[in-house]
UniProtKB/TrEMBL annotation:
InterPro entries documented for this protein: DUF2231_TM
Organism for this UniProt entry: Teichococcus deserti
Keywords: Membrane, Transmembrane, Transmembrane helix
UniProt domain DUF2231: residue ranges: 18-137
Keyword Membrane in record: yes
Transmembrane segments: 20-41, 53-76, 88-107, 119-138
The protein, known as: DUF2231 domain-containing protein
Pfam family, one: DUF2231
């Protein structure tokens, strides 16, 4: 038997995300991470276009992140098993990511020079929350059968 297979607990079945949910979950993490990178580029060069890139990447992350949040919320309401543990933490991370991303979008709506350093800090927090939520989502959650 494989060493990895021996370490997997067999008492709690793990469910994978729905394939469309998994695809959508990949977008906010990459878009918010890209916004962080373009904020770092703006901080280093003060070229206004980098701030514009950040604003567009944040808007895209919020758009797709809203669908991810809606999907996670529907799954949370429909399944009693999803109201505990990792699934509740996943929903909280997605909601916090979206809320912080919205505040970040409001900050980035200002003049490019006025976005620093708050925009950089908010982009870092949003990117970390998006990566954390993706890690929870892709690592599996208890399925509906585990009660």
């Amino acid at each position: 038997m494989d060493a990895i297979a021996r370490n997997v607990p067999r008492n709690v079945p793990l469910a994978q995300l729905h394939p469309l949910h998994a695809i959508l979950l990949g977008f906010p993490s990459s878009l918010f991470a890209g916004a962080l990178l373009s904020d770092l580029a703006y901080q280093a060069t003060f070229q206004v276009q980098w701030a514009n890139f950040s604003a567009w990447l944040i808007a895209g992350g919020l758009l797709v992140g809203a669908f991810v949040l809606l999907w996670a919320l529907v799954g949370f309401v429909r399944s009693p098993a999803m109201r505990r543990g990792r699934a509740a933490l996943y929903l909280a991370a997605i909601a916090a990511m979206w809320a912080l991303g919205f505040i970040n979008a409001l900050v980035h709506a200002k003049d490019a020079f006025a976005t620093m350093p708050e925009g950089l800090y908010l982009s870092a927090g949003t990117a970390l929350l998006a990566l954390f939520a993706a890690w929870i989502g892709y690592s599996g959650m208890p399925s509906r059968e585990a009660r």
